[in-house]
Design goal:
By secondary structure, the chain is an all-beta fold. Helices cover 0% and strands 50% of the residues.
């Protein structure tokens, strides 16, 4: 007999392999979709539009399909965040730069995480976030490290990730850092204290 469908929840998803972002309704049907090559970062913004990365850029698209913001780069981009001041934060992976862009797309802040003239390449950076204190939290996936940088580029905190490659990171309200790992090595989730202690984790031993 067919298994009855169990009602779920409406959610937005970035389909990295399929090259799209979409909204999936509680009944499992896709109600909205946009092309987005290599998308692995997205936000549903307060007005209902969706901000996401597109492989070599970022876009904000309204539910009616209107593009509200767009930035294109020669660099690979895997991180985007809308800031409280209305600007957009972008992590440029292969250029090794962190950018803050005004609503008209102009760069108002730029920080290179690499020596002048050096490029990061495909494996340099994945997810990155601007923290409430103004610092930057970055997954340096090629180095299997999560690092927090002050606005002047000095390292404020680092954690060498055991196991898998760090892809996504979030600073929690309790001051700990949540890290998602995948790709080469052991995948899993780690919660790390400011002192570098792993206080919680979930990996393949928990989820075979």
């Amino acid at each position: 007999a067919d298994t009855p469908y169990m009602k779920g929840k409406r959610f937005a998803a970035g389909d990295y392999t399929g090259g799209r972002v979409c909204i999936v309704e509680a009944d499992g049907k896709i109600s909205w979709e946009q092309k987005a090559p290599s998308c692995d970062d997205l936000w549903i913004l307060p007005g209902g539009s969706i901000l996401f990365n597109t492989g070599h850029g970022v876009k904000e698209v309204a539910m009616d399909g209107k593009v509200l913001f767009e930035y294109q780069s020669v660099s690979e981009i895997y991180a985007v965040q809308r800031l409280a001041n209305g600007n957009t934060f972008v992590g440029e992976c292969s250029s090794g730069r962190l950018l803050e862009l005004a609503p008209d797309g102009k760069t108002v802040k730029s920080l290179s995480l690499l020596p002048e003239g050096q490029k990061g390449g495909h494996s340099f950076m994945r997810n990155a976030r601007v923290l409430k204190n103004g610092n930057y939290l970055v997954t340096l996936c090629g180095q299997k490290t999560v690092a927090e940088y002050a606005p002047d580029g000095k390292e404020a905190w680092t954690f060498k990730v055991p196991g898998g490659v760090p892809h996504s990171v979030q600073r929690l309200a309790n001051g700990n850092t949540l890290i998602a790992c995948g790709d080469r090595g052991e995948p899993g989730l780690l919660e790390v204290s400011p002192g570098g202690e792993i206080v919680w984790k979930a990996d393949n031993s928990d989820l075979p």
